[in-house]
Amino acid sequence: MLATLQTHGLAKWTAIAGTMGVFAKTFIPFYLIGSTAIFAALAAIGCALVAMNWRQILKLKSGMANIGILIGLFYTTVIISFLLNSLASVPLTHLLGILIFHTLFVILGFAASCALRWVFWILVAAGAVYLIFIAQYVVRFGDLMRDGFIHDVFGVGDSAIYLTFHQNIGVVLGFAALAALGLSSNRTTRILAFSALPLVLLFLFHVAARGALVALLCSLLFLAAAALWVRSPKLVAFGVIAAAIVVVATSSWFYQRALGDRNVNPNAGDALSRTIREIQDPRPGFRMQIWARTAERISAEPNRLLFGRGIGMFPVNDGFGAPDWLLRKAEGSKHYPHNVHLELLYETGIVGLLLFSIVTLFPLAASLSRWSLFSSAERSAIALYVFYLVSSGFSGAFAYSYQLQFFFGLAVGVIAIKRSELAASLNPRILTPANHGRGCVMV
After folding, report:
1. What is the pTM of this model?
2. Could you report the per-residue pLDDT of 117-126, keeping only the tens digit for each?
3. Are residues 436 and 115 in contact, defined by beta-carbon separation less than 8 angstroms?
């Protein structure tokens, strides 16, 4: 009994430390009081908790050797890419930061899958804190998007920083909305959680958090498609193909129309108006221009298409210097393609991108085969992973994609627990998870 209670406590505190740690560098209130120190402290606490609970974590990994091999192949490619192409230009700490922190947060996410409710509560609490800041600003000063740009809601004081908070706010609120679905345990709370979703989507549109808006829509569509997959996989497959065709055609049409649109309001701050203005603006700092420039460089050197130019070389080739790990400031760390897949194609080539795509899609494919067995909390955990995977296509940097690693580990952990439960139904001596809000236990 004592061992069970200790396991419950370790799972809870690992989930809390991991979730807070993965957001430590991007949670704005932490930024105001010293995010690097908080990040380092929570990472150290997370390491200690993992060390204390390593036996339980290892027991959960049964049946997950296939994804472990794929992860190993991918990071072997990353190491080789760095050693062959980047070592002379990029400090070794950049590679060490990728290997150390990616591994740590995958493990923390994997361990946190034993205490999903605590992960959800931390995410909901983070969203509530943001809403308090936003509400007090609106009461005191009015619309936070007046004049077409976001204002200093958090009192940062530096316009170069707070003008970029669209996506940050959108990610935190999007996570909170999906976590609320996972916490809804009865009909009333479920109705409240689903009723809040349109309001969140409208707010993300208003503040032009475009990446988070698309990510939240994709997460909700994935939940709907997964539920339908249980009944008709073929229908979902055809639906995905049709949706992809519609999205490509609509995007092409919108882009062409936006190039010639002269009636867009220069002071409108909503997602649509801001996107049109950025499409028309030739300045190199906008997403469209960064993506176009990166694609041009990739196509200009076909001999590097297979293996890329080396990890961390994008800011070097762009003239901003070498990046470094998160614990040391470097100008090069601020410059990346804002799309993880495009970045990996540039730096590790087709080989790295293909392995990364296989690894990141594995939890989605594996979850679909067991979707009818998942609880609402487990489904929300998968949706959280979908949310950040899509979000990383709009504002992600591979080296610092700790949230992607954490929620990847969380999704893989959920799948591992479900596999253990199925195995335990045939053999009662095998590890089975207890209540996810309390931890995993041995029976």
Report:
1. 0.90
2. 999 999 999 9
3. yes
pLDDT in tens, 280-290: 777 777 778 88
Structure tokens given for 310? 């080396």
